[in-house]
């Protein structure tokens, strides 16, 4: 988990520095299409989360933390249960 946190921080920090120097910046097409500058997708190829589990109102601490953290960055999260489990998180950096 620490590795993923570091990679996300590094990507955002590098892109922020590059945007300040006009090298590149957030994806404008993503913002036009989704309303967010960034999209983070995390997935696996396991069995997936059972359909009975309400991700947004779950008693599981992990799901509660994920929802809380996404809310703190004014983002949106979309769980997908097709082939394994996939979470798509959209957010912007100000």
UniProtKB/TrEMBL annotation:
It comes from the Archaea. InterPro entries: HATPase_C_sf (IPR036890), HATPase_dom (IPR003594). Residues 35-91 form the Histidine kinase/HSP90-like ATPase domain. Keywords: Kinase, Transferase. Transmembrane segments: none annotated. SUPFAM superfamilies: ATPase domain of HSP90 chaperone/DNA topoisomerase II/histidine kinase (SSF55874). GO terms for molecular function: kinase activity. Pfam families: HATPase_c. This is Sensory transduction histidine kinase. It comes from Methanosarcina horonobensis HB-1 = JCM 15518.
């Amino acid at each position: 988990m620490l590795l993923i946190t570091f990679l996300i921080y590094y990507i955002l920090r590098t892109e922020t520095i590059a945007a300040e120097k006009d090298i590149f910046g957030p994806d404008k097409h993503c913002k036009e299409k989704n309303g967010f500058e960034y999209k983070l997708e995390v997935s696996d190829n396991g069995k997936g989360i059972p359909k009975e589990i309400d991700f947004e109102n779950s008693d599981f601490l992990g799901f509660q933390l994920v929802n809380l953290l996404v809310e703190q960055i004014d983002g949106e999260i979309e769980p997908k249960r097709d082939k394994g489990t996939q979470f798509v998180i959209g957010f912007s950096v100000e």
